[in-house]
Specification:
single chain; 182 residues
Length: 182
């Protein structure tokens, strides 16, 4: 029952932030909402007992792609030349959101993985057969580099990321006419 509640919370967070991504006019805020959506998807992977995919989601999408998008946005001159105040007026909302997130995490951790059960005896997390983990991660690694499996999409994604990085640098690079006007 508690896993269903956590799933619905994660699904609501993911869907709400995805809607914010496509409706937000501020590109930077849309990128931040995209990161929240990726966190929700990673949480759903963990609920589905696929922790490797959850961690890959965190590392690849939040740690690489989202940061690349945010750097590309910040490198463009149009966003840097706005006359916005450097102080955030949403500190109270951020504090409330952080406290609620912490409370949800504590409740989930305590309910799913109790440290001290009712009988008082200490118990550890359920054990997974190491052979299961070893074989699934090894199969996934082999499929990424195997010519019969996913090597082409894997390489195309890397070329796409490289093109996005080069494109953001070209966009942010000052042209000779812009330097004279400033």
């Amino acid at each position: 029952m508690s896993q269903q509640i956590v799933f619905f919370i994660l699904a609501a967070i993911t869907l709400t932030s995805a809607i914010v991504v496509v409706t937000m006019r501020n590109l930077f805020h849309a990128a931040l909402a995209l990161m929240v959506s990726f966190v929700g998807v990673a949480g759903i992977y963990v609920l589905l007992e696929a922790p490797f995919l959850g961690m890959a989601q965190l590392l690849v999408y939040i740690g690489a792609i989202s940061i690349l998008i945010i750097f590309a946005i910040m490198m463009t001159r149009r966003l840097m030349q706005t006359n916005e105040t450097p102080f955030n007026s949403q500190a109270i909302g951020a504090l409330v959101g952080a406290v609620l997130t912490l409370a949800i995490l504590v409740v989930v951790i305590v309910r799913l993985y109790p440290m001290i059960p009712a009988d008082g005896a200490l118990q550890s997390a359920p054990q997974v057969d190491p052979a299961t983990l070893q074989s699934s991660v090894a199969r996934l690694g082999r499929s990424f580099v195997s010519a019969e499996a996913y090597v082409l999409p894997f390489e195309l994604a890397s070329v796409l990321l490289l093109a996005a990085l080069v494109g953001s640098i070209i966009i942010a690079w000052p042209h000779s006419g812009e330097e004279e006007n400033e």
